[in-house]
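> @MW can you paste both from yesterday?
MW: sure, first one:
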Amino acid sequence: MPRKRRLGQRAREALTLLASEPDGATEAFMHGHGFSLRTLVGLVHARLATIQSEIVIAGGERVVATRIKITDAGRRAIERLGPE
């Protein structure tokens, strides 16, 4: 049986930020707040967040943007931990 891993401080901060964004956040937004790709990928692998790619128009160009959303499991994880 896989061992449950403890939620690190940065992962918890990322989940808290995602929980405050009803439509999720772009990867660029999360990077702008100092979250590494490794942290974000870890949340997805732990099923605490999901990713979805979408095509957006930026400066007249079609660009693929990656949107990250918290899952119900991610919400439960930060609720279990309580306030910081």
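MW: second:
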Amino acid sequence: MAGAGGTWTEKTLHTFTTDGSGPGGVIFDSAGNLYGVTFVGASSNDGTVFELSPGSGGTWTATQLHVFGGTDGAGPVGSLVFDSSGNLYGASAYGGSGNNKGTVFEVSPGASSR
């Protein structure tokens, strides 16, 4: 956000701990939620898809939408994209069924992928 005299200020929205590491590829939805990926971390250490939702007083709440487990992908990279139904699509650098060469994935609202 631009400040007086053209200066910019920085604010940390979320600090990753056990919920992922190496975040990137963030995009907003129309409601102001921020979505992205972590390259590694979480319970499997294969990365995650996350959502940050704005709250009152400038706080943000983090939610893991999907934790990768290797066969479904590992090390998600790049930006996510939405389709008209609200599904998120992305790619992983590793993982996949038997070849470890990566995946293209879809994460859908309401799906049990946590």
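> thanks! The mean pLDDT is 92.
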